[in-house]
Amino acid sequence: MNPPNASDASRILREWSDGDESAPERLMPLVYDELHRLAQDYLRRERPDHTLQPTALVHEAYLRLVDQSGVSWQNRAHFYGVAAQLMRRILIDHARAHAADKRGGAQLKLQLDEAILYPTERAAELIMLDEALNKLAAFDERKSRIVELRFFGGLSEEEVAHFLNVSVRTVKRDWQIAKLWLHRELTMEAQDGS
Prior knowledge:
α6 (about 140-150) packs across α8 (about 170-194) and α7 crosses α8. The chain is mostly helical. A two-stranded antiparallel sheet has the order 1-2. The longest helix has 26 residues, at about 75-100. It contains eight helices and two strands, in the order ααααββαααα. The protein starts with 5 loop residues before the first helix and ends with a helix. The protein is globular, with a radius of gyration of 17 Å. It has one domain. β1 and β2 (about 115) form a beta hairpin.
């Protein structure tokens, strides 16, 4: 996530925070490729017949980013963290709409490995993951943010550590604990639904 124009992006983010209304338009060409890569990564994990395309996801997320008022952009990692959160919300909203169309589908089953994989009924599983992350955030916001930034944001452990102002070791430990907690939570949820 360190393209050659990183310093330009950081400068423009500061200008945006200072109220420069032209900053979002100047920022887009500098961050578009990275946002598009993130969107492709997200959608690769989605069901094969997903109707949302990476370009549409990027554009929707960027429109929501531009609508953010009063955000004081700290740095590029902060920007990508917020973008990841918005993409997550868009995908969850899309999944909820899809699930509403298919009420009463198959029972859900999730697996975790380096990232969380979606085997079959992906829209419903994404909703379960979102609910589990919300539960995790209720008692450990940092672990929830780490999952969100790593899984949905595509940030490296080093970038997450910088963004959250913690050590890389803390991120690695919290990432492992969060994955175990989510695995247990999602397994219990799938068993309760059977």
